[in-house]
Design the sequence.
């Protein structure tokens, strides 16, 4: 159904780059396979952020992850922001560019969060047209990430995996599968995370995200997980990763840790755990490819 | 579909506004406080951006006071774009307008200094003009030569000792500030900008250079502003801090 998205990042663990880890990473470059940056933090004209990024990009493949493009927004994409993204990609030549299935901008107001979308035909058309525009301007395919959901829209007529699969089919973009987001959304909205993975177009996945979440409760006392990126990846999320990789085969894995950022050894240990999951997945996937189960072998 | 933004915006901005209709949990019940996750994410991320951007103001006000004031600013001044490194440009004026902060009249200027430090931190890199480069200019040409300030140079004037207050706020073991006006240049030798108190005439000199006045005119303007203007000391500071740029700004 899908042309396999060519995976330009190595199928190794990477980490979300934080400036406090610069020295540790430069001294120990073998500890991770690649780095991801938030595009918006590297849109200044110069200074230390740009200089350090330049140095890092000589040692590591870099993935640029945008958080502010508002691909699901009702209005036009912000052309100034698109130009900034292009300028960044032009000089950095990152291995990958990704953004979110979300919105954050309306007219001149920017909401510093990834806001949810109803999965309707109208949203589908709009998101696809925005992705076409992004891929035209950047001159490269992008990856689109599944959101973490705290609520659902009564208007939605698509389920999320089918919606993302249709976007990938129409635009040729790849997908960024955040398994923590899947687990958070599944818990919050009461669906099976494994069924979600089963329905997901895994051939289009060019990158997998992992991050920590916090636990809260809704008005009825039901668990409400918050995608906080402020702690270790939870055990059931590691299990869901194993489930995913057994079906997809090895993929570039990223540990996201954005708030209460730990010292380097803690983050390095998370990356090492991701490396173990990849090694395990590689064995399992090979086994499945040679076995008779078409379900697992695809 | 056109209802999405129209419904979301007021509800995001005002915690007391009703949750938009059509939002539900997994079993079709109204979303209720689930919507607060978005409200909270938006507000907390902006407060945190202000905490990162204004560490001296935070230290001077205390964490709790700062959070309360930052919340008020974030609720009334949403960012105009996705670059958080630019967020908070209106924060000094906002502080100046708060009656409760009237006993701290220096606060707004300290916040302006923090904005200047941030602008300098992210400013374009440059190739510095050295003392040797200056010495190579034939003396008869010197007066008509233009000197270009580095893109990272920022200047401020305050009726308060804001460089001293800033230093004291971030390092309480430094000397207690004494009252008095200060002219400041934020200079960035490589990557770390810092405030420098300018001697008399220094601000006029830098302003004249920025306006494109040749070296000789700028020195005259500075001396007119302050007869004791010390050109050699001023040039020494600029060269030592790598504050002059080899070429003119690109157009």
Sequence:
């Amino acid at each position: 159904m899908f042309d396999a998205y060519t995976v330009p990042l190595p199928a190794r663990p990477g980490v979300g780059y934080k400036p406090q880890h610069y020295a540790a990473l430069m001294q120990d470059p073998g500890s991770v396979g690649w780095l991801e940056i938030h595009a918006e933090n590297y849109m200044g004209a110069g200074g230390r952020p740009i200089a350090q990024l330049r140095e890092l990009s000589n040692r590591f493949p870099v993935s640029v992850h945008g958080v502010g493009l508002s691909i699901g927004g009702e209005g036009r994409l912000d052309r100034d922001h698109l130009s900034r993204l292009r300028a960044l990609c032009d000089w950095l030549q990152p291995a990958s560019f990704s953004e979110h299935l979300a919105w954050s901008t309306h007219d001149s107001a920017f909401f510093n969060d990834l806001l949810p979308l109803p999965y309707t035909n109208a949203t589908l058309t709009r998101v696809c047209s925005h992705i076409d525009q992004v891929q035209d301007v950047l001159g490269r395919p992008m990856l689109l990430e599944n959101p973490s959901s705290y609520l659902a829209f009564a208007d939605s007529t698509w389920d999320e995996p089918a919606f993302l699969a249709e976007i990938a089919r129409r635009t040729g973009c790849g997908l960024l599968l955040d398994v923590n987001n899947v687990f958070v959304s599944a818990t919050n909205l009461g669906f099976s995370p494994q069924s979600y993975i089963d329905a997901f177009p895994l051939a289009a996945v060019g990158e997998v995200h992992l991050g920590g979440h916090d636990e809260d409760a809704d008005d009825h006392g039901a668990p409400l997980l918050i995608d906080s990126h402020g702690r270790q990846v939870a055990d059931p999320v590691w299990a869901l990763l194993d489930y995913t990789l057994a079906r997809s085969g090895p993929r570039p894995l990223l540990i996201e840790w954005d708030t209460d950022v730990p010292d380097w050894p803690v983050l390095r240990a998370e990356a090492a755990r991701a490396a173990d999951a990849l090694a395990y997945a590689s064995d399992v996937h090979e086994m499945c490819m040679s076995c008779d189960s078409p379900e697992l072998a695809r | 579909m056109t209802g999405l933004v129209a419904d979301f915006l007021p509800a995001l901005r005002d915690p007391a506004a009703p949750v938009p209709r059509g939002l539900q949990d997994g079993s079709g019940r109204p979303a209720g406080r689930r919507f607060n996750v978005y409200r909270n994410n938006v507000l907390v991320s902006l407060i945190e951006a202000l905490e990162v951007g204004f560490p001296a103001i935070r230290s001077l006000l205390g964490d709790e006071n700062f959070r309360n004031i930052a919340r008020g600013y974030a609720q009334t001044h949403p960012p105009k774009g996705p670059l958080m490194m630019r967020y908070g440009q209106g924060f000094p004026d906002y502080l100046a307008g708060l009656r409760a902060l009237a006993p701290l009249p220096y606060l707004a200027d300290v916040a302006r200094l923090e904005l200047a430090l941030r602008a300098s931190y992210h400013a374009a890199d440059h190739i510095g003009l050295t003392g040797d480069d200056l010495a190579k200019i034939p003396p008869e040409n010197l007066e008509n030569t233009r000197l270009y300030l580095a893109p990272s140079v920022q200047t401020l004037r305050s009726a308060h000792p804001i460089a001293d207050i800033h230093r004291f706020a971030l390092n309480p073991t430094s000397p207690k500030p004494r009252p008095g006006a200060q002219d400041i240049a934020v200079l960035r030798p490589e990557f770390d900008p810092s405030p420098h108190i300018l001697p008399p005439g220094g601000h006029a000199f830098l302003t004249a250079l920025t306006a494109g006045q040749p070296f000789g005119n700028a020195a005259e303007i500075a001396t007119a502003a302050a007869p004791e203007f010390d050109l050699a000391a001023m040039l020494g500071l600029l060269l030592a801090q790598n504050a002059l740029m080899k070429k003119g700004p690109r157009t």
Remarks:
- Chain A touches chain B through 53 residues (CB under 8 Å).
- Chain A has a mean pLDDT of 93.
